[in-house]
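Run log, item B.
One chain of 472 residues. Sequence copied directly from the ordering sheet:
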Amino acid sequence: YTGCLAHANMTYQIGEDSKMSVVMQVLAYLEHNNKCCTAELDKIPAIPLHEHVVEVALRQLGNRAGINVNQSTNIDMLTHHVYRGQSPANKLATVNHHYNILSLDFNQLYQQHYCKAFSIDIKIAAEHNVNNWLKPDSTHFKPNLHKSVFQYSTCASEGEQLKISISTPEMQDAAWEFCHKKQLVLDGMFGLCTSRLLVWIALGWHGLPVAMLLFSAPSVNCATHAVYDTNILTELLSGWKSWLGKRHGERLTLYAAITDTDFKERSALLRVWSNLILLLCKFHMCQCWTNKQKSSLPRSKSHWCIYANSRLLTLEEAYVQQITYRIPCPNDLLDRKQYLDGIAKYLDYLLTTWMPQELWSSRSLHGHKKVVNCLGIPVQGVLPTTNHLESLNGNLKQKYVPQWQHSGHCLQFDMLLYCLVSNNLPQIYAQHCMVTQYNTWRHKQFDHSVITATSSNLRLHTSSGAPCPWLA
């Protein structure tokens, strides 16, 4: 800064044809001081994108196009001189604008996109955005978020945790329809946003999410996956149960739930629903057994090792299929454990870790029989794994959330909350509704049809005489 007063201010009027303009007034002081005359350019000033480039880029971002698509379109339009004001003489820039989208321009483009499309200012802190969205007296109040978030508490001091609990109106109805006096699947995940945020998902047995419980790691912890305990899960699950209230004079009652091998989840569920029948995911249980077996037994292709592995698999299957509680004794293996210490180590692991009666009931056929008797369903209707929830976790990370990400970077938690409530969860429920309606229609069509087979085709006949489809 040199303190120079030199400047010029011109006022002009644009003609009706937008080509001719008339200068109305010129105010100027054209004398520069000595410092200004000897000053050198220290930094090249920023040159903004041309307004037409911004229009095209924002339109593409609104259609969920990524950076690569934006850049390809930009190069193509630059090459063919499609942008307004562009010509072969100034194909890259004019006096005050440039046409080629640079990497640094995408920050401004995304800011404008979120502001224009969703009325979200990503330049302010995420917690301020969430506060503004959930306050009814705020100018940025969002009613759909307010009625879907039933618990929100910020980090007021060191060691406290951010907590956000989500249950949209559709999720509340699904909780009563698919979880009340039925089964529940519970599991957690992390890595969805920039904050160290854990996401716990409660899933109904029809594969629909009925609640999402989000909480952050305390500032004193380092590892995100190790920051939760039974108390915080109990608090969030109790809040969800209270939020659902009563229907027909009853509170939400769970008869059975399935989890992975996380004992914190299991303890929290039992604190909220004391009479719950807990089951263990067969996949996660077998994964634990396989990992322990690999670390205990030597890696060898000898006859004895192959025989030992085969017998241990038979023993594990016998553990799973038990109906009455007893500890099977593999005598042929125990007699030979002096030759292979790894077998003794693995058997001790199975007996001490997996044979307590409470855990045995959760992982054996006995537990599934209890659920069958309680729900009055066939044993095939009892969920053996948490695969439905693992599939949903994968879809969130690989399908739904990446549509909102900037060059694959994790979202801030305010944007994660917005996209979950406003886009992802409604999309999941809409897809479920469409599939349900289609399956209902399909079964109705075939239930009232008489199928007659011929040598060349299969034709459907109905008593109503309506047109029938040909099936190849």
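Observations after the first pass:
- Residues 413-447 form the longest helix (35 residues).
- The chain is about 45% helix and 15% strand.
Flagged for discussion on Thursday.
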